[in-house]
Amino acid sequence: METIIDAHNISKIYNKESIPVYAINQVHLHIEKGEFTALVGPSGSGKTTLLNLIGGLDRADEGSISINGEEITQMSSGDLIDFRLKNIGFVFQSYNLIPVLTAKENVEFIMQLQGINEKDRIERVKLLFKQIGLEDKMDYRPSQLSGGQQQRVAVARALASRPQFVLADEPTANLDSASANNLLDIMWKLNQEEHITFIFSTHDQRVIDRAKRVITLVDGRIVSDTNQVPINH
Amino acid sequence: MLVIISMAWRNIWRNKARSFVIMFSVALGIFAGLMVMALYKGMMRDRIKALIYQETGHLQLHNPSFKNDYEVKFTIDNLANVNNLLTQNRHVKKFTLRSIAQGMLATTNGSAGLQINGIDPASENNCSELNKKIIIGQVFSNQKKYEIIIGQKLSKKMKISLGDKVVLTFTDHTDEIVSGAFRVVGIMQTSNSAWEERNVYVQRNELNELLGLPNGAHEIAVILNSNEELPVAMMDLKSKMKSVLLEDWKKLSPETELMVDTVDITSYIIMVIILIALAFGIINTMLMSILERTREIGMMMALGMNKLKLFVLVLMETTFLTLSGLPLGIIAAISLSNYIAENGFSFGANSEEMMRKYGFGTTIYTDFAYEKLAMTILFVVTTAFISCLYPAIRALKLNPMEALRK
Known about the structure:
The structure holds two protein chains of two kinds.
Chain A: E1 3-14, E2 21-32, E3 36-40, H1 47-54, E4 62-67, E5 70-71, H2 77-87, E6 88-91, H3 103-114, H4 118-132, H5 147-160, E7 165-169, H6 177-194, E8 197-201, H7 205-210, E9 213-218, E10 221-227
Parallel strand pairs in A: 3-8, 3-9, 6-7, 7-8
Antiparallel strand pairs in A: 1-2, 1-4, 4-5, 9-10
Helix pairs in contact in A: 3-4, 3-5, 4-5, 5-6
Chain B: H1 2-12, H2 16-56, E1 59-62, H3 66-69, H4 79-88, E2 92-107, E3 110-119, H5 121-128, H6 130-133, E4 134-137, E5 147-151, H7 152-158, E6 165-171, E7 177-188, H8 193-197, E8 199-203, H9 204-211, E9 219-224, H10 230-240, E10 245-248, H11 249-252, H12 254-292, H13 294-303, H14 307-343, E11 345-346, H15 352-357, E12 363-364, H16 373-396, H17 400-405
Parallel strand pairs in B: 3-8, 5-7
Antiparallel strand pairs in B: 1-9, 1-10, 2-3, 2-6, 2-9, 4-7, 5-8, 6-7, 11-12
Helix pairs in contact in B: 1-14, 2-12, 2-14, 12-16, 14-16
GO molecular function (chain A): ATP binding; ATP hydrolysis activity; transmembrane transporter activity
Organism (chain A): Sandaracinomonas limnophila
Family (chain A): Belongs to the ABC transporter superfamily. Macrolide exporter (TC 3.A.1.122) family.
């Protein structure tokens, strides 16, 4: 299998000057292409911090992180922005769509930042909206969509740039059961059919049940890392 | 880039009330600045017009020694030849000869030092519109000798009325003191009360008689076809008249030229002050807008929007916000300026004395400064750019991870 993420001995320390607090403590992590992985653990265990470190939104104080063989811990902030644009898709808990853009424009936005031509953008947008089942709502503004629909658009946006992997921080936290299941179905299908790598941080048992691999964090350390057969799939 | 422009335009309408307030402020500021410029330009145009057509002419000719001490013996040499050259010159529309003596006017109420201008009524009326300035009496009756026209300001100061006799005392061409009693036949009012107080008119032949200079003249005031011909006319006349001192209105009235330059700079300063005040409003609005969208900006940075694009987004938003009010301000200023240019704007009787003291009429006719419009727009765009810097820096300094937590 192809290794996408190789985090070696990474730590994130707060209050280094006074009483150091290890948000992430000497974590080793390898993620292979096509994984459907859930990061679980109690609040404050370091799930979101680990996602931020992998996603290049935060910097590790110790250790190294390679994405597709490219070391990101020493990159400048400008290079990291460019790296994120080309390699990583994000899905946030609060959807975070741009309110002044339509659903279609939100998805297209990432491709426009990448400089993809209009013809290719339109084709990709159509395909993504078909995959998330919102072809009829492409021209809606986020405020005209339900939470579940917004999160599906957020998934389409995360995939628009054809990233190496998608990081999803508590993607179902704000959704009702039906919407959460619908979103998970879509992500699962994308994982199965297109081998898109998904890494979630979650408390949600429904997400955990569907994961192929579950990594449990406690106090910034990985306490268990198990592969499982996803329930219902 | 189109998506950034589109986003910027939509972003400014997220809080319509706030955007409208700032747009209206910009419109009002631009309107005020342009109106000040139009008002100043109109005032200066009228002042120059009054100076040329009522006081100095476009240019004047003197004996080169005359203006040193205003000695009456220094009359213009070869007057007939100069007269002839001026008549034939294609730039010269009209001219008038004047004899000048510095002297004293005395009445039973007191005395005042002034300039006595000996004029030929017909050509003076033609050149300086003297007849139009007479508010009481007439120019000269031509029936009686030794008549004088004085200014309204002098008449009030010296309590001189129409028909009163005044005594003029001055030195003749041999430096002997001579006096003459003149009867007031006209009281004039000009737009320049200071000038009016220190100038009187008598007939040139009568003044020449007292000066002992039967055919002399000290000054020739020349009106050209237009002010634009002034430099060419000056060169042309200078090459043909070596023995006379030629001076244009700017040299004759340096205070007016200084005033024109000063007012030009002042109008720009006023515009800059207005824009600085506006800039603070724009900065505040943009800063609010950035702070309200901290999370959204963090998200865009997280997704891969680089700092240049984020800066362009903030710049475009500021520019749209600023430029949206610009057309309204310009249209309002042009409309009102055109109305005042036609109908005038009166400062009222209370300000008459003050305005006339500086050579201005009480009714101002604006002249919209179209030539300064491009500069004004450039100022506004510059203001938008400067105003966006601080909010943009705040946005660029955001840490995407921290911004997403807000």
